[in-house]
Amino acid sequence: MTKKAIVFLANGTEEMEFTISADILRRAKVDVTVVGVELEKDKPAICANGTKILPDILLTDKELEGNLSYDAGVVPGGLKGSHTCRDNKKVQAIIKNLYDQKKIVAFICAGTLVAKASGIPKGHTVTSYPAVMDQLTDTYEYSQERVVVDKNVITSRAPGTSFLFALTIVENLVGKEAADQLKKDMLTSSVL
After folding, report:
1. Which CATH class is domain 4-185?
2. pTM
3. Catalytic residue among 39, 98, 109, 110
4. Which of 78, 80, 124, 174 has the fewest CB atoms within 10 Å around its CB?
5. Is position 47 annotated as part of the catalytic site?
6. pLDDT per residue over 132-178, tens digit each?
């Protein structure tokens, strides 16, 4: 059965964290839906460094409503994009619903702020971009590791950890064999 994932996208999303995550998940044959948060129909998100990316659907689209049969939710960083997702009640509800169903919820960089806003409970160990660490340490154990997996919560630090982050999601969602094959195919084994 094909696994399905939501990858959220907003104005100010960090493009490397978004594109590497979405791309590697698709290479692993995961059915990825890019969900635009607080974007206008047929208009792209303008990412943190000016790259324009068009989502597959908007958070407000009817086809998303009631269709939460996803296996993973991914929130890229980028401070502005992370704040948009963090403050959006529908994003919070989707993330909490996935978490409660023991599905994978994954956050990178400032995206980890969305975990807290969504009510992912205390006690998890997480990581994030160092600048937002102080906003997380009152709720979570904090790690300096590049990628942290704690039950169904996966977190990572920054654009430079995007490949490892995405491959870790693949390993936990599809399996180690799929992740290892992608590492081999993309020639990333020696750099991770």
Report:
1. alpha beta
2. 0.96
3. 109
4. 80
5. no
6. 999 999 999 999 999 999 999 999 999 999 999 999 999 999 999 99
